[in-house]
């Protein structure tokens, strides 16, 4: 517990703050200090979280690779895309899944294997079909937000859960200027709703 030093009153006398008095009373009453909480790791839970993390990393790296015109990413540029700490998780992922990721060339670069490319193409077709739904969900999210805007950093964090591609700012937002715009607010880039649609403000129950 933090101890507050005595302070000088307006009459020039030293007094103790209420927090300091509370601390001394507790100490004088013979009460023992509260025990520190001890946290134990649960190995089964760790394994579950690790299993959930792997597919997410695979999808993220696949999206990064596909976002480049060459459909490949120089390993030396991996850090620029995911950061220094996470880079090592992705390096281990590339080594662990040779059926998905292929390293070749000089300087070495990573790309998707032919089989993974085929799956990615099917996924791209599915995403194209799902895009109208993603756009509507994003519009609904903005309609629920204060001033109908959300920081892009927040959207990038929750984007995978919403089904948004990692490059949604470049690949999705510019396609719908009548719905979205990016504006600088309080030092942050925010996605802002351009058009309010009352039909989207209807609950699923009301729509039945």
Number of strands: 8
Residues in β-strands, percent: 5-15%
Shape: globular
Assembly state: single chain
Amino-to-carboxy terminus distance: 57 Å
> How many structural domains are formed by the residues?
2
Report mean pLDDT, rounded to a whole number: 78
- How many alpha or pi helices? 8
Provide the spatial order of strands within the biggest beta sheet: 3-5-4
Level of helix content?
Answer: 40-55%
CATH topology of the largest domain: Arc Repressor Mutant, subunit A
Poorly predicted runs:
1-10, 13-29
CATH top level of the largest domain is: Mainly Alpha
Describe the structure.
It is a single chain. The protein is an alpha+beta fold. The chain has 2 domains: 43-112, Orthogonal Bundle (Arc Repressor Mutant, subunit A); 126-207, Orthogonal Bundle (Arc Repressor Mutant, subunit A). The chain is built from 8 helices and 8 strands, in the order E-E-H-H-E-H-H-E-E-H-E-H-H-E-E-H. The strands form 3 sheets. Strands 3-5-4 form a 3-stranded antiparallel β-sheet. A hairpin with a 5-residue loop joins strand 1 (7-8) and strand 2. The longest helix is centred in the middle third of the chain and has 31 residues, at 114-144. Residues 1-10 and 13-29 have low confidence and may be disordered.
